[in-house]
Amino acid sequence: MSEETMPVEHTEQSHKHHAHAETLAPTTTIMGITLPMPLYTTVFMILGILTVTEVLLAELIEGDIKIPLLLGIAVAKGALVVMFYMHLKTDSRAFALAFLVPLGLAILCTLFLIAVPSTGGYFGA
Amino acid sequence: MSELTVQHDAHTHDLEAISRMSENYKFAMWLFIASETIIFSVFIAAYAVFRFQNKEIVHAVHEALGFGGTLIVTFNTFLLLTSSWAMVMGLRSIQLDNVKGGIRWLSLTALLGVIFVILQYYEYTQLAAKSITLGFETDAYEGFGMHFYAPTAFHGFHVIVGVLWCLDVIRRARKGQYSKDNVIGVEVFGLYWHFVDVVWILLFTLIYLV
User: Fold this and answer.
1) Which pLDDT score is estimated for A123?
2) Pick among A40, A51, A60, A85 to test the B interface (most B CBs inside 10 A)
3) Which residues of chain B lie closer than 8 angstroms to A58, CB-CB?
């Protein structure tokens, strides 16, 4: 191992240890506020609140305006699970790349299918 | 070099090997998840196109199901979210050297997965009673059935596989194969289970709420 790479590995190692300590700690600190529950439970609570919000919005709001709102909340929930439960926030960036590149392509293809007149034509309607 | 130092070096070497192996397993799992993402995207794209071309039909289905139908699916969504939470809490317990606690959390994960599948089956029977079927000609809602059952049943199949995998992880944990220094089997299963959860989060919003 060269001397040049050593400090980088030390940084990554300490970053991983920090992430590990964060998930094992009995409390969670968000924006300076310490909550008396582990990080995983805090994320679960947020997911629960977002789900209830989604269902209420779907019932209360009429029309297409609710579509971007609901999809936005769903994406936020998915991102929370991927970042904190699947540890993509702290794990190797190679994992993130392996997941996000095909996901990005899939989203582009879906938008294309919805947009073109022969299959969807939604955006032009 | 003392015997103690040699033992310490060997232990460090073992931990490094486990760590390297863990990274490889996780990367393989992420590649598998990437391929699954593409498959589910096809189902989601097909449903999205149907939804935007047939607003009235989807609206009529939502009307037919009523708030009661949404309530059952919302409850099911909570089951899956809770099972994901139980999964990470199980991993955390094992990382804190509490394997028995980890087994209890993982058992809860499997149990919630089973209840999810049972409730989904119940929902399917309710939909079939309202003539929402797979066949285009028998379906009262002109093709909604196929676009609905394909993604949700494929997802349900993943939940069943996940429950079986979870039971295997529990069996291995009981045999003492996992410890605070070796949780890779639990972590890789967790990646799969959380992915199944993420897919449901999107399906729930797209199919039942939008």
Assistant:
1) 61
2) A85
3) 70, 208-210
Task: Return per-residue pLDDT of chain A as tens, 125 residues.
Answer: 443 444 444 455 555 666 677 888 888 888 888 888 999 999 999 999 999 999 999 989 888 889 999 999 999 999 999 999 999 998 989 999 999 999 999 999 988 888 887 776 666 55
Do B190 and A86 contact (CB within 8 A), yes or no? yes
Does B26 lie at the interface with A, CB-CB under 8 angstroms? yes
Which portions of chain B are predicted below pLDDT 50? none
Distance from CA of A88 to the nearest CA of B (A): 10
> Is A102 in contact with B87 (Cβ distance < 8 A)?
no
Question: Across the interface, do A103 and B37 touch by the CB < 8 Å criterion?
Answer: yes
- b vs e for B22-39, b when ≥16 Cβ sit within 10 Å of the residue's Cβ? beeebeebbeebbebbee
Right CATH for B29-209 from 1.20.120.80, 1.20.1440.130, 3.30.470.30, 1.20.1250.20: 1.20.120.80
Chain B: give the shortest CA distance to residue A15, in Å.
15
Query: Contacts by B30-34 with C-beta closer than 8 Å and gap 24+?
Result: B30/A95, B30/A98, B30/A99, B30/B191, B31/A98, B32/B192, B33/A99, B33/B191, B33/B192, B33/B195, B34/A98, B34/A99, B34/A101, B34/A102, B34/A103
| Residue B110 token pair | 């499997």
Whole-Å CA distances, B37 to A102, A103, B17, B30, B153: 7, 6, 30, 10, 16
CB count in 10 Å sphere of residue B133: 17
Contacts of B35 in chain A (CB under 8 A): 102
Calpha distance B123→B79 (Å, rounded): 15
Question: With contacts defined as CB-CB under 8 Å, which chain B residues touch A44?
Answer: 81-82, 84-85
